[in-house]
Protein backbone atom coordinates (compact mmCIF):
# COMPACT_ATOMS: atom_id res chain seq x y z
CA UNK A 1 0.00 0.00 0.00
CA UNK A 2 2.91 2.34 0.77
CA UNK A 3 4.34 1.82 -2.74
CA UNK A 4 0.92 2.44 -4.22
CA UNK A 5 0.57 5.65 -2.21
CA UNK A 6 3.99 6.87 -3.33
CA UNK A 7 3.09 6.21 -6.98
CA UNK A 8 -0.17 8.12 -6.60
CA UNK A 9 1.60 11.08 -5.00
CA UNK A 10 4.27 11.04 -7.71
CA UNK A 11 1.61 11.15 -10.46
CA UNK A 12 -0.21 13.99 -8.67
CA UNK A 13 3.01 15.99 -8.26
CA UNK A 14 3.85 15.58 -11.95
CA UNK A 15 0.34 16.74 -12.84
CA UNK A 16 0.57 19.82 -10.60
CA UNK A 17 3.99 20.80 -11.97
CA UNK A 18 2.95 20.28 -15.60
CA UNK A 19 -0.23 22.29 -15.24
CA UNK A 20 1.62 25.06 -13.40
CA UNK A 21 3.99 25.39 -16.37
CA UNK A 22 1.07 25.35 -18.81
CA UNK A 23 -0.85 28.02 -16.88
CA UNK A 24 2.19 30.28 -16.62
CA UNK A 25 3.05 29.78 -20.29
CA UNK A 26 -0.51 30.58 -21.44
CA UNK A 27 -0.47 33.71 -19.26
CA UNK A 28 2.70 34.88 -21.00
CA UNK A 29 1.46 33.92 -24.49
CA UNK A 30 -1.79 35.81 -23.87
CA UNK A 31 0.17 38.91 -22.88
CA UNK A 32 2.44 38.59 -25.92
CA UNK A 33 -0.48 38.23 -28.37
CA UNK A 34 -2.46 41.11 -26.85
CA UNK A 35 0.55 43.45 -27.03
CA UNK A 36 1.25 42.44 -30.63
CA UNK A 37 -2.30 43.26 -31.74
CA UNK A 38 -2.28 46.49 -29.76
CA UNK A 39 -5.07 45.69 -27.28
CA UNK A 40 -2.84 46.26 -24.25
CA UNK A 41 0.38 48.18 -23.70
CA UNK A 42 3.68 46.63 -22.68
CA UNK A 43 4.51 46.46 -18.98
CA UNK A 44 7.77 45.98 -17.04
CA UNK A 45 8.89 42.33 -16.73
CA UNK A 46 8.44 42.27 -12.95
CA UNK A 47 4.81 43.38 -13.27
CA UNK A 48 4.11 40.62 -15.79
CA UNK A 49 5.86 38.00 -13.61
CA UNK A 50 3.84 38.96 -10.53
CA UNK A 51 0.53 38.84 -12.42
CA UNK A 52 1.27 35.54 -14.14
CA UNK A 53 2.60 34.07 -10.89
CA UNK A 54 -0.47 35.18 -8.94
CA UNK A 55 -2.76 33.72 -11.59
CA UNK A 56 -0.83 30.43 -11.65
CA UNK A 57 -0.87 29.98 -7.88
CA UNK A 58 -4.56 30.91 -7.73
CA UNK A 59 -5.58 28.39 -10.40
CA UNK A 60 -3.54 25.64 -8.72
CA UNK A 61 -5.07 26.33 -5.29
CA UNK A 62 -8.62 26.43 -6.69
CA UNK A 63 -7.99 23.26 -8.70
CA UNK A 64 -6.78 21.60 -5.53
CA UNK A 65 -9.89 22.75 -3.67
CA UNK A 66 -12.25 21.19 -6.22
CA UNK A 67 -10.38 17.88 -6.24
CA UNK A 68 -8.66 18.07 -9.63
CA UNK A 69 -5.42 16.74 -8.15
CA UNK A 70 -6.93 13.86 -6.22
CA UNK A 71 -4.92 10.73 -7.06
CA UNK A 72 -8.08 8.61 -7.05
CA UNK A 73 -10.32 11.04 -8.90
CA UNK A 74 -12.80 8.86 -10.82
CA UNK A 75 -14.72 11.39 -12.83
CA UNK A 76 -16.21 11.56 -16.31
CA UNK A 77 -14.59 13.93 -18.77
CA UNK A 78 -17.65 16.19 -18.48
CA UNK A 79 -17.13 16.28 -14.73
CA UNK A 80 -13.48 17.21 -15.15
CA UNK A 81 -14.41 20.03 -17.55
CA UNK A 82 -16.96 21.29 -15.04
CA UNK A 83 -14.31 21.32 -12.30
CA UNK A 84 -11.87 23.17 -14.55
CA UNK A 85 -14.46 25.86 -15.28
CA UNK A 86 -15.22 26.24 -11.57
CA UNK A 87 -11.57 26.38 -10.49
CA UNK A 88 -10.44 28.86 -13.17
CA UNK A 89 -13.60 30.94 -12.66
CA UNK A 90 -12.89 31.18 -8.94
CA UNK A 91 -9.29 32.07 -9.73
CA UNK A 92 -10.45 34.98 -11.90
CA UNK A 93 -12.36 36.58 -9.04
CA UNK A 94 -9.62 35.76 -6.53
CA UNK A 95 -6.93 37.45 -8.65
CA UNK A 96 -9.17 40.47 -9.26
CA UNK A 97 -9.82 40.94 -5.54
CA UNK A 98 -6.25 40.31 -4.37
CA UNK A 99 -4.55 42.38 -7.07
CA UNK A 100 -6.82 45.40 -6.64
CA UNK A 101 -6.80 45.25 -2.86
CA UNK A 102 -3.08 44.66 -2.28
CA UNK A 103 -1.25 45.36 -5.54
CA UNK A 104 -3.29 48.12 -7.17
CA UNK A 105 -0.25 49.50 -8.97
CA UNK A 106 0.45 46.08 -10.49
CA UNK A 107 -2.99 45.59 -12.05
CA UNK A 108 -2.76 44.74 -15.77
CA UNK A 109 -4.93 46.20 -18.54
CA UNK A 110 -8.58 45.09 -18.50
CA UNK A 111 -8.22 42.71 -21.46
CA UNK A 112 -5.41 40.61 -19.99
CA UNK A 113 -7.12 38.64 -17.24
CA UNK A 114 -10.28 37.56 -19.17
CA UNK A 115 -8.20 36.56 -22.19
CA UNK A 116 -5.71 34.67 -20.02
CA UNK A 117 -8.49 32.84 -18.18
CA UNK A 118 -10.12 31.82 -21.47
CA UNK A 119 -6.84 30.49 -22.92
CA UNK A 120 -6.07 28.63 -19.68
CA UNK A 121 -9.47 26.90 -19.66
CA UNK A 122 -9.05 25.73 -23.26
CA UNK A 123 -5.48 24.54 -22.59
CA UNK A 124 -6.36 22.64 -19.41
CA UNK A 125 -9.37 20.96 -21.03
CA UNK A 126 -7.25 19.75 -23.95
CA UNK A 127 -4.43 18.67 -21.62
CA UNK A 128 -6.78 16.75 -19.32
CA UNK A 129 -8.37 15.05 -22.32
CA UNK A 130 -5.07 13.55 -23.40
CA UNK A 131 -3.88 12.70 -19.88
CA UNK A 132 -7.10 11.10 -18.70
CA UNK A 133 -8.41 9.56 -21.90
CA UNK A 134 -5.09 8.40 -23.32
CA UNK A 135 -3.47 7.52 -20.00
CA UNK A 136 -0.56 9.94 -20.33
CA UNK A 137 1.57 10.52 -17.20
CA UNK A 138 -0.02 7.40 -15.77
CA UNK A 139 -3.12 9.40 -14.80
CA UNK A 140 -6.60 7.99 -14.76
CA UNK A 141 -5.23 4.43 -14.93
CA UNK A 142 -6.66 2.60 -11.92
CA UNK A 143 -5.89 -1.01 -10.97
CA UNK A 144 -9.16 -2.89 -10.56
CA UNK A 145 -10.22 -6.29 -9.31
CA UNK A 146 -13.74 -7.62 -9.87
CA UNK A 147 -15.55 -9.67 -7.23
CA UNK A 148 -17.48 -12.16 -9.32
CA UNK A 149 -16.76 -14.29 -12.37
CA UNK A 150 -20.28 -15.29 -13.36
CA UNK A 151 -22.98 -13.98 -15.65
CA UNK A 152 -23.05 -10.41 -14.29
CA UNK A 153 -19.26 -10.10 -14.39
CA UNK A 154 -19.22 -11.32 -17.99
CA UNK A 155 -20.87 -8.04 -18.98
CA UNK A 156 -17.45 -6.41 -18.56
CA UNK A 157 -15.83 -9.05 -20.77
CA UNK A 158 -18.48 -8.68 -23.47
CA UNK A 159 -18.86 -4.91 -23.45
CA UNK A 160 -15.25 -3.90 -22.91
CA UNK A 161 -13.19 -6.22 -25.08
CA UNK A 162 -10.98 -3.63 -26.78
CA UNK A 163 -7.99 -1.84 -25.27
CA UNK A 164 -9.65 1.50 -26.03
CA UNK A 165 -12.52 0.47 -23.75
CA UNK A 166 -10.06 0.06 -20.87
CA UNK A 167 -8.02 3.23 -21.18
CA UNK A 168 -9.13 4.37 -17.74
CA UNK A 169 -8.24 1.21 -15.81
CA UNK A 170 -6.07 -1.88 -15.62
CA UNK A 171 -7.92 -5.13 -14.96
CA UNK A 172 -6.03 -7.29 -12.45
CA UNK A 173 -8.55 -10.13 -12.62
CA UNK A 174 -11.91 -11.63 -11.63
CA UNK A 175 -12.40 -13.34 -8.28
CA UNK A 176 -15.04 -16.15 -8.31
CA UNK A 177 -17.66 -15.84 -5.56
CA UNK A 178 -19.92 -18.69 -4.33
CA UNK A 179 -23.20 -18.61 -6.23
CA UNK A 180 -21.71 -17.33 -9.49
CA UNK A 181 -23.13 -18.80 -12.70
CA UNK A 182 -19.81 -19.98 -14.11
CA UNK A 183 -21.40 -21.62 -17.17
CA UNK A 184 -22.39 -18.21 -18.54
CA UNK A 185 -19.53 -16.41 -16.86
CA UNK A 186 -16.00 -15.25 -17.63
CA UNK A 187 -14.31 -17.08 -20.51
CA UNK A 188 -11.15 -15.25 -21.57
CA UNK A 189 -10.25 -12.96 -18.67
CA UNK A 190 -7.80 -13.74 -15.89
CA UNK A 191 -9.40 -15.63 -12.99
CA UNK A 192 -7.89 -14.98 -9.54
CA UNK A 193 -8.52 -17.92 -7.25
CA UNK A 194 -8.37 -16.39 -3.80
CA UNK A 195 -10.67 -16.67 -0.82
CA UNK A 196 -12.23 -13.32 0.06
CA UNK A 197 -11.53 -13.32 3.80
CA UNK A 198 -9.21 -11.44 6.14
CA UNK A 199 -6.28 -12.36 3.84
CA UNK A 200 -7.92 -10.53 0.93
CA UNK A 201 -6.54 -7.26 2.29
CA UNK A 202 -3.02 -8.62 1.78
CA UNK A 203 -3.87 -9.40 -1.85
CA UNK A 204 -5.11 -5.81 -2.26
CA UNK A 205 -1.86 -4.44 -0.83
CA UNK A 206 0.43 -6.75 -2.84
CA UNK A 207 -1.27 -5.87 -6.15
CA UNK A 208 -1.76 -2.13 -5.55
CA UNK A 209 -5.52 -2.47 -6.05
CA UNK A 210 -7.27 0.91 -6.05
CA UNK A 211 -10.85 -0.16 -6.81
CA UNK A 212 -13.05 -3.21 -6.24
CA UNK A 213 -16.01 -3.76 -8.57
CA UNK A 214 -18.91 -5.81 -7.14
CA UNK A 215 -20.25 -8.07 -9.90
CA UNK A 216 -21.23 -11.33 -8.19
CA UNK A 217 -24.45 -13.09 -9.24
CA UNK A 218 -25.65 -13.80 -5.68
CA UNK A 219 -25.08 -11.25 -2.92
CA UNK A 220 -27.11 -12.46 0.02
CA UNK A 221 -24.92 -14.66 2.21
CA UNK A 222 -21.99 -14.58 -0.26
CA UNK A 223 -20.81 -10.96 -0.32
CA UNK A 224 -17.92 -10.42 2.16
CA UNK A 225 -19.36 -7.29 3.78
CA UNK A 226 -16.83 -7.11 6.63
CA UNK A 227 -13.87 -7.41 4.26
CA UNK A 228 -15.28 -4.76 1.91
CA UNK A 229 -15.99 -2.50 4.89
CA UNK A 230 -12.35 -2.77 5.94
CA UNK A 231 -11.15 -2.07 2.37
CA UNK A 232 -13.34 1.00 2.16
CA UNK A 233 -11.98 2.35 5.43
CA UNK A 234 -8.46 1.94 4.02
CA UNK A 235 -9.29 4.14 1.03
CA UNK A 236 -10.07 1.46 -1.59
CA UNK A 237 -12.98 2.41 -3.84
CA UNK A 238 -15.84 -0.12 -3.83
CA UNK A 239 -18.08 0.26 -6.88
CA UNK A 240 -21.25 -1.52 -7.94
CA UNK A 241 -21.18 -3.06 -11.45
CA UNK A 242 -23.93 -0.78 -12.77
CA UNK A 243 -22.08 2.34 -11.63
CA UNK A 244 -18.80 1.03 -13.06
CA UNK A 245 -20.33 0.32 -16.48
CA UNK A 246 -22.12 3.65 -16.51
CA UNK A 247 -18.92 5.52 -15.71
CA UNK A 248 -16.68 3.70 -18.18
CA UNK A 249 -19.03 3.16 -21.14
CA UNK A 250 -21.46 6.09 -21.00
CA UNK A 251 -24.48 3.79 -20.89
CA UNK A 252 -26.76 2.18 -18.34
CA UNK A 253 -27.00 -1.62 -18.52
CA UNK A 254 -30.78 -1.87 -18.60
CA UNK A 255 -31.02 -5.63 -18.13
CA UNK A 256 -29.05 -5.36 -14.85
CA UNK A 257 -31.03 -2.44 -13.39
CA UNK A 258 -33.04 -2.91 -10.23
CA UNK A 259 -35.41 -0.45 -8.48
CA UNK A 260 -33.25 0.29 -5.43
CA UNK A 261 -30.31 1.30 -7.66
CA UNK A 262 -32.52 3.82 -9.46
CA UNK A 263 -33.91 5.15 -6.17
CA UNK A 264 -30.55 5.71 -4.48
CA UNK A 265 -28.48 6.55 -7.56
CA UNK A 266 -27.49 10.12 -8.35
CA UNK A 267 -29.01 11.75 -11.42
CA UNK A 268 -32.41 11.37 -13.09
CA UNK A 269 -32.99 15.03 -12.41
CA UNK A 270 -32.29 18.31 -14.16
CA UNK A 271 -28.78 19.50 -13.30
CA UNK A 272 -29.00 23.00 -14.72
CA UNK A 273 -31.71 25.37 -13.55
CA UNK A 274 -30.86 27.95 -16.22
CA UNK A 275 -31.24 25.26 -18.86
CA UNK A 276 -34.67 24.32 -17.50
CA UNK A 277 -35.89 27.89 -17.28
CA UNK A 278 -34.71 28.85 -20.76
CA UNK A 279 -35.24 25.46 -22.44
CA UNK A 280 -37.68 26.60 -25.13
CA UNK A 281 -35.98 29.98 -25.69
CA UNK A 282 -32.54 28.40 -26.09
CA UNK A 283 -33.82 25.75 -28.49
CA UNK A 284 -35.63 28.32 -30.62
CA UNK A 285 -32.54 30.55 -30.68
CA UNK A 286 -30.29 27.68 -31.79
CA UNK A 287 -32.88 26.52 -34.34
CA UNK A 288 -33.11 30.03 -35.81
CA UNK A 289 -29.31 30.23 -36.11
CA UNK A 290 -29.14 26.82 -37.79
CA UNK A 291 -32.00 27.70 -40.14
CA UNK A 292 -30.18 30.87 -41.21
CA UNK A 293 -27.30 28.68 -42.44
CA UNK A 294 -29.10 25.63 -43.83
CA UNK A 295 -32.13 27.09 -45.62
CA UNK A 296 -30.32 27.00 -49.02
CA UNK A 297 -29.58 23.29 -48.43
CA UNK A 298 -33.21 22.66 -47.50
CA UNK A 299 -34.48 24.51 -50.56
CA UNK A 300 -32.09 22.59 -52.85
CA UNK A 301 -33.04 19.26 -51.25
CA UNK A 302 -36.76 19.93 -51.70
CA UNK A 303 -36.21 20.80 -55.36
CA UNK A 304 -34.13 17.65 -56.03
CA UNK A 305 -36.71 15.39 -54.36
CA UNK A 306 -39.46 16.99 -56.43
CA UNK A 307 -37.52 16.53 -59.68
CA UNK A 308 -36.47 12.98 -58.75
CA UNK A 309 -39.94 11.51 -58.27
CA UNK A 310 -42.21 14.11 -56.68
CA UNK A 311 -43.20 15.63 -60.00
CA UNK A 312 -44.00 12.21 -61.43
CA UNK A 313 -45.89 10.80 -58.44
CA UNK A 314 -47.45 14.01 -57.16
CA UNK A 315 -46.33 13.16 -53.60
CA UNK A 316 -45.05 15.89 -51.27
CA UNK A 317 -41.30 16.33 -50.76
CA UNK A 318 -42.00 16.26 -47.02
CA UNK A 319 -43.08 13.32 -44.90
CA UNK A 320 -45.11 13.75 -41.70
CA UNK A 321 -45.09 10.82 -39.31
CA UNK A 322 -46.62 10.30 -35.87
CA UNK A 323 -44.10 9.96 -33.05
CA UNK A 324 -44.15 9.65 -29.26
CA UNK A 325 -42.89 12.72 -27.44
CA UNK A 326 -42.54 14.08 -23.91
CA UNK A 327 -44.62 12.14 -21.36
CA UNK A 328 -45.97 9.89 -24.12
CA UNK A 329 -47.77 12.66 -26.03
CA UNK A 330 -48.10 12.11 -29.77
CA UNK A 331 -46.97 14.65 -32.34
CA UNK A 332 -46.23 14.80 -36.07
CA UNK A 333 -42.54 14.80 -36.94
CA UNK A 334 -41.55 16.42 -40.23
CA UNK A 335 -38.82 15.06 -42.51
CA UNK A 336 -37.73 15.26 -46.11
CA UNK A 337 -39.13 12.22 -47.87
CA UNK A 338 -36.33 9.70 -48.43
CA UNK A 339 -38.45 6.63 -49.34
CA UNK A 340 -40.78 5.70 -52.13
CA UNK A 341 -44.42 6.83 -51.78
CA UNK A 342 -45.55 3.19 -51.31
CA UNK A 343 -42.86 2.39 -48.71
CA UNK A 344 -45.40 1.39 -46.06
CA UNK A 345 -48.21 -0.05 -48.10
CA UNK A 346 -47.96 -3.22 -45.97
CA UNK A 347 -47.83 -1.31 -42.66
CA UNK A 348 -45.11 0.10 -40.43
CA UNK A 349 -41.70 -1.58 -40.75
CA UNK A 350 -38.32 -1.11 -39.15
CA UNK A 351 -35.88 0.66 -41.45
CA UNK A 352 -32.88 -1.47 -42.42
CA UNK A 353 -29.34 -0.49 -43.36
CA UNK A 354 -29.68 -1.17 -47.10
CA UNK A 355 -33.42 -0.61 -47.30
CA UNK A 356 -34.64 -1.00 -50.89
CA UNK A 357 -37.49 1.41 -50.15
CA UNK A 358 -35.04 4.33 -49.97
CA UNK A 359 -34.84 6.52 -53.08
CA UNK A 360 -31.64 7.53 -54.86
CA UNK A 361 -31.53 10.96 -53.22
CA UNK A 362 -32.75 9.36 -49.98
CA UNK A 363 -29.49 7.45 -49.44
CA UNK A 364 -27.51 10.70 -49.63
CA UNK A 365 -29.72 12.87 -47.42
CA UNK A 366 -29.94 10.10 -44.79
CA UNK A 367 -26.17 9.69 -44.68
CA UNK A 368 -25.64 13.39 -43.96
CA UNK A 369 -28.81 13.76 -41.83
CA UNK A 370 -30.26 16.31 -44.25
CA UNK A 371 -33.63 14.53 -44.10
CA UNK A 372 -33.89 15.61 -40.44
CA UNK A 373 -33.61 19.37 -41.13
CA UNK A 374 -37.39 20.03 -41.44
CA UNK A 375 -37.64 19.00 -37.78
CA UNK A 376 -36.47 22.53 -36.99
CA UNK A 377 -40.19 23.32 -37.33
CA UNK A 378 -40.90 20.80 -34.54
CA UNK A 379 -38.37 22.65 -32.40
CA UNK A 380 -40.09 25.98 -33.09
CA UNK A 381 -43.42 24.39 -32.12
CA UNK A 382 -41.93 23.17 -28.81
CA UNK A 383 -42.48 19.49 -29.62
CA UNK A 384 -38.77 18.67 -29.80
CA UNK A 385 -35.46 19.90 -28.43
CA UNK A 386 -32.16 20.04 -30.25
CA UNK A 387 -30.71 17.37 -27.97
CA UNK A 388 -32.62 14.39 -26.60
CA UNK A 389 -33.60 10.78 -27.33
CA UNK A 390 -34.85 10.30 -30.87
CA UNK A 391 -38.67 9.97 -30.92
CA UNK A 392 -40.04 6.58 -31.95
CA UNK A 393 -43.26 5.61 -33.70
CA UNK A 394 -46.19 4.66 -31.45
CA UNK A 395 -46.56 1.25 -33.14
CA UNK A 396 -43.00 0.37 -32.21
CA UNK A 397 -43.22 1.98 -28.74
CA UNK A 398 -46.18 -0.23 -27.90
CA UNK A 399 -44.10 -3.29 -28.78
CA UNK A 400 -40.90 -2.03 -27.14
CA UNK A 401 -42.57 -1.16 -23.82
CA UNK A 402 -43.63 -4.81 -23.53
CA UNK A 403 -40.25 -6.28 -24.50
CA UNK A 404 -37.66 -3.78 -23.25
CA UNK A 405 -37.55 -2.98 -19.50
CA UNK A 406 -37.69 0.71 -18.53
CA UNK A 407 -38.29 1.76 -22.13
CA UNK A 408 -40.97 4.30 -21.17
CA UNK A 409 -38.44 6.23 -19.04
CA UNK A 410 -36.86 7.70 -22.17
CA UNK A 411 -40.07 9.73 -22.58
CA UNK A 412 -39.32 11.64 -19.36
CA UNK A 413 -37.44 14.22 -21.43
CA UNK A 414 -38.36 15.98 -24.64
CA UNK A 415 -37.20 14.13 -27.80
CA UNK A 416 -34.43 15.70 -29.83
CA UNK A 417 -32.92 16.15 -33.28
CA UNK A 418 -29.70 14.54 -32.05
CA UNK A 419 -29.03 12.26 -29.10
CA UNK A 420 -26.40 10.46 -27.04
CA UNK A 421 -27.60 7.10 -28.38
CA UNK A 422 -27.21 8.18 -32.02
CA UNK A 423 -23.57 9.10 -31.40
CA UNK A 424 -22.70 5.84 -29.67
CA UNK A 425 -25.02 3.40 -31.44
CA UNK A 426 -25.83 4.99 -34.79
CA UNK A 427 -28.17 2.41 -36.28
CA UNK A 428 -31.21 0.64 -34.87
CA UNK A 429 -33.62 -1.60 -36.76
CA UNK A 430 -34.88 -4.16 -34.24
CA UNK A 431 -35.96 -4.71 -30.66
CA UNK A 432 -32.39 -5.73 -29.81
CA UNK A 433 -31.03 -2.51 -31.29
CA UNK A 434 -33.62 -0.52 -29.35
CA UNK A 435 -32.41 -2.18 -26.15
CA UNK A 436 -28.84 -1.10 -26.91
CA UNK A 437 -29.90 2.45 -27.73
CA UNK A 438 -32.02 2.64 -24.58
CA UNK A 439 -28.87 2.11 -22.50
CA UNK A 440 -27.48 5.35 -23.88
CA UNK A 441 -30.83 7.15 -23.78
CA UNK A 442 -31.21 6.40 -20.07
CA UNK A 443 -27.66 7.63 -19.47
CA UNK A 444 -28.71 10.92 -21.08
CA UNK A 445 -31.94 11.08 -19.06
CA UNK A 446 -29.93 10.52 -15.88
CA UNK A 447 -27.11 12.98 -16.64
CA UNK A 448 -28.86 15.61 -18.78
CA UNK A 449 -27.13 18.97 -18.51
CA UNK A 450 -26.18 21.92 -20.65
CA UNK A 451 -22.59 20.68 -20.84
CA UNK A 452 -23.65 17.25 -22.08
CA UNK A 453 -25.94 18.89 -24.66
CA UNK A 454 -23.03 20.97 -25.96
CA UNK A 455 -20.82 17.87 -26.17
CA UNK A 456 -23.49 15.98 -28.14
CA UNK A 457 -24.04 18.97 -30.44
CA UNK A 458 -20.32 19.25 -31.22
CA UNK A 459 -19.98 15.53 -31.92
CA UNK A 460 -23.13 15.60 -34.07
CA UNK A 461 -21.54 18.26 -36.27
CA UNK A 462 -18.62 15.86 -36.76
CA UNK A 463 -21.05 13.09 -37.73
CA UNK A 464 -22.77 15.34 -40.27
CA UNK A 465 -19.57 16.74 -41.79
CA UNK A 466 -17.93 13.34 -42.22
CA UNK A 467 -21.06 11.38 -43.11
CA UNK A 468 -20.82 8.95 -40.20
CA UNK A 469 -24.58 8.74 -39.87
CA UNK A 470 -26.80 6.05 -41.26
Automatic annotation (TrEMBL):
Q: How is it placed in the membrane, per its record?
A: Multi-pass membrane protein
- The answer on whether this UniProt entry bears the keyword Transferase reads yes
Q: Which organism is it from?
A: Alteromonas naphthalenivorans
Q: List where the protein spans the membrane.
A: 12-33, 48-68, 80-99, 111-131, 284-307
Instruction: Name all Bacterial sugar transferase domain ranges.
Output: 282-465
Query: Where is the protein localized?
Result: Membrane
The similarity comment for this entry is: Belongs to the bacterial sugar transferase family.
- What's the protein called, per UniProt? Sugar transferase domain-containing protein
Q: Return any one Pfam family short name.
A: Bac_transf
* Alphabetical keyword list: Membrane, Transferase, Transmembrane, Transmembrane helix
Record's PANTHER family? COLANIC BIOSYNTHESIS UDP-GLUCOSE LIPID CARRIER TRANSFERASE (PTHR30576), UDP-GLUCOSE:UNDECAPRENYL-PHOSPHATE GLUCOSE-1-PHOSPHATE TRANSFERASE (PTHR30576:SF21)
Amino acid sequence: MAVNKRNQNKRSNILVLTEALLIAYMGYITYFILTQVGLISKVPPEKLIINVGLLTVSVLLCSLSVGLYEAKLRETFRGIIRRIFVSVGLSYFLVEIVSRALFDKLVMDAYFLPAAVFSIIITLVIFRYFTNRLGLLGLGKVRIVVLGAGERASIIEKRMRRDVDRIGFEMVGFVPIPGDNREDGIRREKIVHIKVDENFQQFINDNDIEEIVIACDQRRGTLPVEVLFECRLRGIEVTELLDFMERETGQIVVNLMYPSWVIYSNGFQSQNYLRDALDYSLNVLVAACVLAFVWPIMLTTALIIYLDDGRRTGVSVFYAQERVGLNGQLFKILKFRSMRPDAEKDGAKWASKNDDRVTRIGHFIRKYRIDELPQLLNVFKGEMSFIGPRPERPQFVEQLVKEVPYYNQRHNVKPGLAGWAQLNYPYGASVEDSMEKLKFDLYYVKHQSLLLDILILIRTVEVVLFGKGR
